Amino acid sequence: LISGSRSSKTFKPKKNIPEGSHQYELLKHAEATLGSGNLRQAVMLPEGEDLNEWIAVNTVDFFNQINMLYGTITEFCTEASCPVMSAGPRYEYHWADGTNIKKPIKCSAPKYIDYLMTWVQDQLDDESLSAPVGCVSGVPFPKNFMSVAKTILKRLFRVYAHIYHQHFDSVMRLQEEAHLNTSFKHFIFFVQEFNLIDRRELAPLQELIEKLGSKDR
User: Fold this and answer.
1) What is the pLDDT of residues 122-157, one digit of tens each?
2) What are the protein's GO molecular function terms (predicted)?
3) 167 labelled binding-site residue
4) Fewest beta carbons less than 10 Å away: which of 86, 94, 95, 157?
5) What residue spans define the domains of the chain?
6) Strand partners, 95
7) Does domain 22-132+140-214 have CATH number 3.40.50.150?
8) Would you say 82 is a known binding-site residue?
9) Residue among 169, 137, 152, 210 at smallest CA distance from 15
10) Which candidate, 135, 164, 162, 131, places its Cα nearest to that of 145?
11) How far apart are CA 30 and CA 42, in angstroms?
12) Is the pTM above the cut of 0.90?
């Protein structure tokens, strides 16, 4: 499924949280509460836990989930089919990471998503940023942790938005819509619980977000 220039590392969830670590226990807790089916409850900060740590663990988990979901449709998301990175006709995304590419560039969806996933991977691998992921609990989080986590989640949302707007027919053919919907619902409830993504950024999927939310009231 991996085409041309795209590096295989990008589409294999590589970010593992080491077994035995406190964050691994948190991940197990998250998985267990998800199994209960109550997503609103599942995203809440467990009693006595550190907010940054909870956000870090879940961010890694969402990165892995989106990696896998997008990985199943890469053959349908090509330079030809998706020459721009969009979420429907009204929303187009241009890539910039502030370091290598400072001025936003217009690029195809597969290229944009490759940049995006590689950038997220680099953030998660950056010792200064995510030293606490998989390390001894109690390591202080860097001051800019929350702003970086918010940027990661904002960008991961764009991959969901692109899949829903441009590739939902492929998702249906692969019979993956239930998996996609559950993953996205979990993601949305999480970012809503901790107010991590600006409402304007969520606009491309606003109707879907309202629909998913209304079923849980």
Assistant:
1) 888 876 555 444 444 556 788 888 999 999 999 999
2) kinase activity
3) yes
4) 94
5) 22-132+140-214
6) 105
7) no
8) yes
9) 152
10) 131
11) 6
12) no
